[in-house]
Amino acid sequence: MNSLTAPPPHGPADQINIVIVDDEQDFARGLVRLVAGHFGGTRVEAAHSGKEALGLLASGPFHLMITDLRMPEMSGMQLLAEALALQPDLSVVVLSAYGTIETAVEALHAGAYDFLTKPIEPEQLFRVVAKGLERSRLLAENNRLRQIVSRQETQEELIGEGPAMRKLRQTVAAVAQSEYAVLIRGESGTGKELVARLIHRTGPRAARPFLAVNCPSIPENLLESELFGHVRGAFTGADRDHKGLFSAAHTGTIHLDEIGDISPAVQIKLLRCLQNGEIRPVGANGNQTVDVRVVSSTNQDLEASLHAKTFREDLYYRLNVLTVTLPPLRERVEDIPLLAQHFLRRTCREMGLPDKELTPEVLQWMSACPWPGNVRELQSFIRRMTVFCTGERMDLALVETVLGKTDRPQQSHQSGSKGRPMAYKEAKAEVVNAFTLEYVRDLLTRTRGNVSEAARISGLSRVAVQKILARLGEQAAAFRTKSNR
Q1: Which helix (H) or strand (E) segment is 68 a member of?
Q2: What are the φ/ψ torsions at residue 397 (nearest 5 degrees)?
Q3: Per-residue pLDDT of the chain (485 residues; tens, 9 = 90+)
Q4: pTM
Q5: Domain range 17-142, CATH architecture
């Protein structure tokens, strides 16, 4: 294909459409004849005002628009903004007899694909049109592939065939199509960030930015600056302006993880952002408009925080327009074998190993385990097993090696310490507590009482590890003392 000819159509039945906008009618008609004559089979329309051009764009898809800059009633810059709002993938070329570097830069920043000045050489015009049409074709193809991949990844990443996961998939699919704020609820390790990304990737903002922030990981005095930005001199060390995450996520999605941990001061700022679509950087005198979809998540009981007056009620209702609740792994035990196989295949690919196999006994053992860290803990355990597996099969002997056990884990007890028969829940709780206690003790021994390192290895959050220690009556400091002896 000649570099100055039109690219192939966007599809077998697709028509390439171009609109040329200029209030000088003779000039517009001349450009139409020039472009249509060079790009055979292309539909080229003329419009003599911004309003007429928008009417054409509203009637169907166009791939390229060439617009004059200075026109009565609506300027080319105004038309550019409204045209891209109608058709975001439209390639726009701004054409003017009054071209300056500043004007060109302004047009490109506003979303124009290219900028040309009058009078224009036909060869230059053809080159820009061809490149603009190719850009439009690539955008259309990327959108098509993104939709296919999104559907496949939705099915792949939300692993599970039980009723809880079927309901979750339906909920995520419905929530993704709206623009409302979403609150994702669930225990640590259930996959809240994965679902947040899935909501963004399968929604109308898929091609826009997605930014995630773990609120407790940022010191309270810096969180406001990280979210909303700051200006130079706002505080000690602020030697230059800083663009916050909300500005960086403009037109896209921001995921605020562990939203229940933010301070009252940041809650007020966030509420203003959700109410008015505006933020104020730290130290700034004015507000900035932002268009961001907020997806927040928490493992806390926010209703209890409302009752305790530590979380604002008005912010809660702004964040909780739509709710997605993730089931803990113990409520979807039937999915554990499927998840284990999925993580094993993924881990083998990550390590460049041939596929390995989990024995039925191991799958049965996994299905009986409590997994307080939920899916993240299961994935972490599969990775450890894969590292230590020297053969093709993973059996209970390997489980014992990974856990540092001297005998096989028992899956059920028929009698209690006094010989009386035990109920199923009671027996399961005894096994669960024994497993958890031994696992945590071994983990803290290996990490010398370093809770952060223990959390990283186990796949649990630091808060989850601390909660387990408190429930079991264990102190991390004791393991640091032991390791120093």
Answers
A1: strand 64-68
A2: -65, -40
A3: 344 444 444 443 468 999 999 988 989 999 999 999 999 888 999 999 999 999 999 998 999 999 988 888 888 889 999 999 999 889 999 887 765 667 777 888 888 888 888 888 889 899 999 989 988 887 776 566 445 434 444 455 788 888 999 899 999 999 999 999 999 999 999 999 999 999 999 999 999 999 999 998 888 888 989 999 888 887 887 788 888 899 999 999 999 999 999 999 999 999 999 999 999 888 888 889 999 999 999 999 999 999 999 999 999 999 999 999 999 999 999 889 888 988 998 899 899 999 898 888 888 889 888 899 999 999 999 999 999 998 888 988 898 888 875 344 444 444 443 334 445 556 556 666 777 777 788 888 888 888 888 887 877 777 778 878 877 777 777 776 554 54
A4: 0.54
A5: 3-Layer(aba) Sandwich (3.40)
* Residues 1, 9: Cα–Cα separation, whole Å: 13
- Fold match between domain 17-142 and domain 160-327: yes
**3-state SS track over 351-414:** HCCCCCEECHHHHHHHHHCCCCCHHHHHHHHHHHHHHHCCCCEECHHHHHHHHCCCCCCCCCCC
Q: Which fold has domain 331-484?
A: Helicase, Ruva Protein; domain 3 (1.10.8)
Strands 393-394 and 43-47, sheet pairing: unpaired
Q: How many CA atoms lie within 13 A of 144 on its CB side?
A: 8
Class of domain 160-327: alpha beta
Please, are residues 82 and 54 in contact by the beta-carbon 8 Å criterion? yes
In the numeric block, which tokens belong to residue 414?
A: 């028929």
Give the number of other CB atoms < 10 A from CB of residue 281.
23
Question: Domain map of the chain by residue range?
Answer: 17-142, 160-327, 331-484
For residue 428 the two structure tokens come to 């399961």
